[in-house]
Design goal:
The protein has 261 residues and is mainly alpha-helical. It contains 10 helices and 2 strands. It is a multi-pass membrane protein.
Length: 261
């Protein structure tokens, strides 16, 4: 079998294992949905003509849901698998590391699709988030989501090597995810964030994922409200692609089958 074929088969197993873990399903799928409902119900100010805070926040939460599914869940899940010896047993098989990474990407893409559908349906039904009106915007939505969740997945796999044990996974990954959400323009309009924090956020994928999602779901007139005065689709694609390449290199360089001890 080719590495790709093995990775796809591994992806099917990863999806089954995820669905059998009720805690992971509830946390991964329900938490972003809960935040969307709470913030959408509390804040409803108008940020610009025809754009409410709820619509702005909903677009950002679509990106945050992909971050939660790709980066946060894997940075927590993999150290647990490593501590339980699951990865050690996989190491004894002919499956290469790349196939294992492909399996994680397949699982995250499937769960991310379900997450996106839930968030999008809730935002449309409860908070009047307008759906994209053109094929071009739907295409932008697809490539931003696919590039973004792939980058987050590979970064999550690489970041999982920092956790010394399964218990320390949440303590290591959760603060990073929360900080990135606050400085990337999800909870607070990006133009209102201090410049030095915006500079930090612009290095990471989430800021560009949020901006890409805003370009899809907010009016084109809102582009003038962005810090750089436009949607910057080309820069978004380049940054996300760079993180995919860099994330894969980090995965291959840092991934461990067993605990450091």
């Amino acid at each position: 079998m080719t590495t790709l074929h093995l990775g796809l088969l591994r992806g099917g197993l990863e999806i089954k294992q995820f669905l059998r873990s009720r805690e992971s399903v509830v946390f991964t799928l329900a938490f972003p949905l809960l935040l969307l409902v709470l913030f959408g119900a509390i804040f409803n100010d108008e940020l610009a003509p025809g754009v409410s805070y709820t619509q702005y926040f909903a677009a950002g939460m679509l990106a945050a849901g992909l971050l939660s599914t790709g980066f946060q869940s894997l940075a927590i899940q993999i150290p647990i698998e490593r501590e339980k010896g699951i990865l050690k047993r996989l190491r004894g098989t002919p499956m290469p590391r790349t196939a294992y990474f492909i399996g994680k990407v397949v699982m995250v893409l499937a769960i991310g699709l379900a997450e996106t559908i839930l968030l999008l349906a809730t935002a449309v039904l409860l908070f009047d988030l307008p759906l994209p009106s053109t094929a071009g915007k739907w295409l932008t939505f697809v490539w931003v989501a696919v590039l973004g969740i792939t980058a987050c997945t590979l970064c999550g796999i690489a970041f999982s090597s920092l956790a010394r044990s399964g218990r320390s996974g949440p303590a290591v990954a959760t603060p990073v995810a929360i900080v990135l959400q606050f400085i990337s323009g999800i909870f607070i309009p990006y133009q209102n964030i201090p410049g030095w924090l915006r500079d930090i956020a612009s290095v990471f994928p989430l800021k560009w994922m949020c901006q890409g999602m805003r370009s899809v779901f907010l009016p084109d007139s809102f582009a003038a409200q962005e810090v750089d005065g436009g949607w910057q689709h080309g820069t978004t694609a380049l940054v996300l692609a760079a993180w995919i390449v860099g994330g894969l290199v980090l995965c291959l360089a840092t991934f461990r089958w067993t605990d450091r001890s």
